[in-house]
Amino acid sequence: MPGLVNAHTHLYSGLAPLGMPVPERTPATFVQILERVWWRLDRALDERSLRASARYYVAEALMNGTTVLVDHHESPDFIEGSLDVLADVCHELGVRALLCYGATERNRGRDEAREGLRECARFVHANRRPLVRGLVGLHASFTVSDETLEEARDLCRDLGVVSHVHVAEDHADVDDARGRGYDGPLERLLRHELLGTELRDALQRAPGTGTAVAIVAAAIAPSLGDARGAEQAYAESGLKGFESKLTRDYLQHVTSTRPHRAVRRFFAAFIDLRNLMTLYKHLRWQIDDPAAFVPGGTLDTGRLREASAQGDGEYLDSAVRRVTGEPAAPAAAGQVALESRLLASLTRMLRKAGRDGDDVDLVLDYVWCTYVHARNRALYLHAGGMDAEVLQPELIA
Question: Rounded to two decimals, what is the model's pTM?
Answer without folding.
Answer: 0.58
